[in-house]
Amino acid sequence: MEVMRLNKGIPFLKIRKGSRVVIYGCGINGVICYKLLIKSGYCKLTAIVDINYANKVIEGEEVKPVSELETMEYDYVFITIIDEYVSKQVKQNLINKGILEDKIVTMQDKIKPLAVECLENIESIQEYIDDSFKKMYGFAKRAGEYYQELEALLIENSVDKDGVFNYLKKLLKALKDDEKKFILLVLMYQCGYFDKQCMELFMKWMINSKWYDDTYYEFIIDSTVMIFLHPDYIYNDFFIDRKRLQKKICEYYNLYEIENKLKPEQRKVAIVSSIYSPDCTQEAVSALVRKYAIEFIELGYDVKIFVLRQNIACDLEKIFLTNEIPLGSSVKTTDELTAAKNIQIGEQLSTNLTERIQNTVKSIINYRPAFILDMADERFSEAFALIKHFPIISVPMRGNAYSSEADIYLFTDANRVKKDNYLYRALPIERVREVMISYLNQNEKSISYKRKEYGLQKEDFVMVTVGGRLHIEIDDEMITCVCQLLSEKKNVKWILVGDNVESGNPQFNLFLAEKRVIHWGHEKCLEKLYQMCDIYLNPNRRGGGVSIRRAMCLGLPAAMTDFPSDALPCMPTAYIVHGDYRNLMEYVAQLCENRDLYQRVSKETLERIKLFTAKSDAEKILENYKELIALLN
Hints:
This protein is of the alpha/beta class. Helix content is 41%, strand content 13%. Helix 18 links the parallel strand 17 and strand 18. The longest helix is centred in the C-terminal third of the chain and has 19 residues.
């Protein structure tokens, strides 16, 4: 999934406190910068300018054309544009207009980093933290804005990461002020100096702290993404602690106090999703939510999709750790198919977080569903308040669902869940059901792309890997093993669909230049692409299940290890590779060389995946709901 990254901090140290500033840009980040620089009292506003200035107003300040800069008196023009390429163009245009370069500040301006040696003296670095916090308190929001020189050091340091990490851990222990410590933890996470112990400190601090605003809500929501991207951060009590924090959300926003005097209606299903943007091709969960909604409609139920976080840009200014927004956010929540099937959409777009959360709970109560289907990726904290009113069934979308609250948890691999639960003790194991969920419909074949049009030959053996986090999921070990295969098999090519993968491996970069490794970008119709590929090559990851299953529906063999991925339960067990990436590449080489083996695997893959449909999923969910009601009665 692509994300819109708004995690750049304002370079406060480049802008003298009390100076006169022109803010260039009136987009989301322009508004945030206005509030942090001007409304906070850090600087004085001269004007806000933008190329697209017509009828634009920020906090009562009319946005003016860039041409008026010529008549203004100011100390700095601050370009608030996050895109580095666009920001550079704007800066150059201003210089061409005669504006002095030392009067122009951008979001990309670098701060002079601390020397690594500064970390060695604990007393000295503590003084720096205290002094920086004091200077920036009341102005900064992002962690890097508090400790700017330290952030610059952590970003630029590439020589002794382990040594620097050890110094940071000592600093964490030495700091007495909890808020300064927490901000440092956030900065460490953002800069890649984090581990299981840091995660535990991060969670425990939120549990024990007193809440005054919405800051911690976003941190708690983010925590599920943090451990999805970094499963090695999961400590034994993580899921228990996250449940405690979600209950704290319900208490803080008074969700337990919302009453319900209405009786459920038996032919209604409430589906809860974190976001819903079915037209956004990179947003797999939205497509799944729509498929399930349609199947319940076909089975005679009314369905309403409750969207938790469709408009979350308004939360960005309230938090230290700026969120990573799924690309589907702030995209329209309906499409022709949703409307044609009479699927209702319930979304809360209020900029007031308290109002939004409370209205979500009230809206679900007023809908009066027979049960709630949680497809919200462990972001449905409201479930802890709603479970006393309605049965809740949890269907995990990605990774774990161990911190969700539900009456029934549907998993495709109950044995793995039981093993995990022995360690994490987060789920009432009697609520766990093993159900082979497909997560998709069977797709008819589309007209295939033509190999020749994309520089591929008939005799090429084409591997494909799809994902929105490939830059994280494809590691150096996998790249090394794939490059070894490409060196040995001259007809093998590898298409990467999604975000670009960067590597310092010279062989990988050579194969990129030779177009034997191809960065495809995002693909709207995977079926067209899959039909000119030979196998799906899966990294060791939790996600990717939907794209893999879509490939399997076309008979494309999936090459994967026994790492517990989302698609593993749908695999023909005989063709799961037990071993590492080296063993996986040996299996791929066999498929490349042995046509009989390839056709056998393809046939068995197709037979296996045909057992799974969205209709059968909906029927299984209803069966579990009826069993639950029988037990409750």
